[in-house]
């Protein structure tokens, strides 16, 4: 037990250092390679000295534009997306006691996508811009999860059964994808249709400083809530009856945490589109590395590991095929889908 605590304790500084290195290194790579020391100097100058060295001509203005206004927002968006999806996956797996639960598989991402597509493709009279897209993505995510939850309970005789949950998620995924396809079919603007098609495959290409605020705020607030509630996540994992006996209002807690999950997913999907399997794979990798299932450790480590994983996946997406950029959702699906099959086989054999 002591060895596990030491191992999990060491993972925090190791994963934090790796994340910082990953941010610096991934910003440095691209069609215009930039020395990692220059990346560090430009970032330090902007953060601590308000761009004084840039104004004094310490480096070319084009280098500053590439680092600060093009690559860094995209990498930070990857940090938010990876951390948010991973921590939602870890939270969902604890809430429904299912090792294959995550936003994409349970239909939450598809619901958010359908809501965002409705905001993007139809002339709605209220809100505007990213706020409208995020609001409708949140409504879609909440609707999708409500349907999955109710169907799973009905199919499991009042209790959430793993098979019923997966079947419900598959059904809601199909319906929400059909809604999105129907909205695309009915849309009049070719530009909007093209944008939604590309956006459905998942990408960080649209990341800008202006579009980073809502996802960063949603992810940060969600992570703080989950970290503070990690003890209650541990309680709910021992069973609803035992958790209630120890003073936890199980139904209210589960409902509130699902709303937080939907908020995080909606804030991300409204900008990135659907990026699947991150929330499935990362928590399991963290449990393997940490040697524990305690959510006091798994939740923060999942955020750190997921952030690093997604920015490297995005680096691969924009580097593997030269000037052409592969959608990020394809990369995560190629990696995550085999992992999903492995978990299902392991579960059927009684290993989970």
Describe the SSE topology:
Elements lengths: L1 H27 L7 H13 L3 H4 L5 H35 L12 H14 L7 H27 L6 H25 L3 H11 L8 H20 L1 H8 L2 H6 L4 H23 L5 H13 L4 H25 L8 H21 L4
* The CATH superfamily title: ABC transporter involved in vitamin B12 uptake, BtuC
Structural class: mainly alpha
Count of strand segments: 0
Which segments are poorly predicted (pLDDT under 50) over 5 or more consecutive residues?
none
Kindly estimate the percentage of residues that lie in beta strands according to DSSP: under 5%
- Rounded to the nearest angstrom, the distance between the terminal CA atoms is 21 Å
What's the CATH C level?
A: Mainly Alpha
Could you report the average pLDDT, rounded to the nearest whole number? 88
Summarize the biggest pleated sheet. none
Please identify, by name, the CATH architecture.
Answer: Orthogonal Bundle
Helical segment tally? 15
> What is the radius of gyration?
21 Å
CATH topology category name? ABC transporter involved in vitamin B12 uptake, BtuC
Domain count, please report it. Answer: 1
Shape: globular
* Percent helix: over 70%
Question: What is the element string, with H for helices and E for strands?
Answer: HHHHHHHHHHHHHHH
